[in-house]
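Repro case for the chain-ordering regression, as requested:
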Amino acid sequence: VERRFVELIVRGPEQYARGWVRGFLAGRGTGAAVFFEGEAGFAPDSLFEEIKERLHVTHAATRTICDAETAELIRAGTEAAHEPGLTTASKREIESASFEYRFAIYNKEMGEAFAKALAAPPEGVALLDGKQSLRAPEEGGEPVPFGPSHRYEFHGEGRAEGVVDKIVRFRKELAGFDQAEVEPIRLKYRKA
Amino acid sequence: LYPHYASALDDQPVPAASSISPADTEHGVPGSALPLWSALPFVGILMSIALFPLLAPHFWHDHYGKVAAAWALAFAGPFVGFYGVPALHSLFHIFIVDYVPFIILLWGLYTVAGGMILRGSLRGRPAVNLAMLLIGTLLASWIGTTGASMLLIRPVLRANAWRRHKAHVVVFFIFLVANIGGSLTPLGDPPLFLGFLHGVDFFWTLHLAPTTGFVAALVLAAFFALDSYYYRREGPAPDDGEKAPLRFEGLPNLAFFGGIMGAVLFSGLVHLGGVAILGVTIEGQDLVRDGVILAMGGASLYATKAQVRRDNEFTWAAIQEVAILFAGIFTTIAPALAILKAGEHGSAAPLIAAVSQPWHFFWASGGLSSFLDNAPTYLTFFSTAIGKLYPDIADEKTAAALLMGKEAILAQHPTLPSGFKFLEAISAGSVFMGANTYIGNAPNFMVKSIAEEAGVAMPSFFGYMFKYSIPVLVTVFIATTFVFFA
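-- result from build under test --
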């Protein structure tokens, strides 16, 4: 069964909140994946949040992304522990996560590995609006002084959309290719 | 080049007497009679070389020869049609005296450099990278920026393959090995060889050593700081087993480099008299030089193991491209040079009037060299300086000697200033600032492509400029201006 992910806002000093949540979950031994804002490539929720992040301004509320069960555990945990100044606020259900990618790969080995990754994304991840072109002339294309020529050129772009944890994993896999660029992960919320 | 070009125009209508410089009257009707638009094909081919690879790389790859031919014909067609046989003679002169020696030297250096390889494993730590860039910088003046780049780029890439941040290593390699390091001899960078062909002494460029040392030291220091910063963030190098010892293959090619250098030196020091071919005088020492360079290239091809060239991925594509494009450049450059040499009597008078100080020449030649190929740019400002400082001197060798600041020649012309600082500024600007963009100097794109084929994510055209060359190089060049050219 596909796991449902939610965005949970934990109010309180940011570093303290992150440490408490990680420690609490480790103590419970759930092994659940929890992503905080700025981690794992999640895009800031708004321009204001982005500016704050770039200026390293400490957040008074920590955006936490995790599955619904874990979110419930965290909420219950903060209430039960009566942690001073740490409360859970809003909770939004996430419909899907997505990120855009583009690549210009000139190394054949790297290009073939990248094509393989695109051909078999993790289950629960769909590739949308994908475009790619391969140019590998049998002759010519050697590096020359007055042109950016290559013997192998694999260009393209697209968008990957799917379940949060799979998207995080797939984005990390594509980001591992030096000649590929991945954009931050954007979340689409389920309408209440 | 110039007197022959001028002679081609001898029979044409003479402009008003007031617009003719004394040098013009001595040699017929050269640059002062030419309109600025006659240099359009020259500007066109340089702009094509600068813009097509960025805007339409695949079109350029497949059709650059046709583009160069189109610009060459756009000039040569009307030129020959209007002036007839003298125009043909003028073009023949350009090809024999400038183009052929230029291409032979580049071919020789390229062939010999392609016969050497550095094997073994190095670990790209900041100190090791600094040492490799320093060695490349020192080598570039003696085996050419292209030769040094070809020899060292693959070892540098291998040494840094494990690094997460490595694009900056390649960028600084372009700065230092593919450009700045080539400033000390005419073998180092094509502009300086063109200067040599036009009368600048082989060893004169060594006068640039303090400037080069200053620039290279600052750029190397910036590199070391940046590389150390990234290195600290990356953690220790992975242990990938036993290291292969460093090994240099293709040793005989060092002797062939020596032969090429000796031949170029010989042509600058010895005078064997001239031989006339179809009315163009070719100096005997130049023929010997070109013959020896061809022999050195041939010997390199014969003596080098095929495996070395295969491992270097050596092909003729690079030199073929240079030969074709420079055929177009040399065909179209004549009117531009003639106009500039006419000084304030020519149609480029506003430009000549605008550049009056050495630092103007440093930035003007450098600014243009950043976006146009630096060899024709050097020649353009070399002619501009002659037109500016010595409009009455018709003999180019004498003008070159005055630009070099030769005291004996200056004593014969006591009213004329020394052009030493001007020539220094033009040489430094043309060579150093070729590093400002990917299109500033021939090896830049080659190094970029080789790095990309090795999997390095190189910055875009503007990324290279805004992340690296403007913050680092332009800052260093501003400091250089105050220290050396203000």
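Ordering looks correct now. The longest strand of chain A covers residues 87-105.
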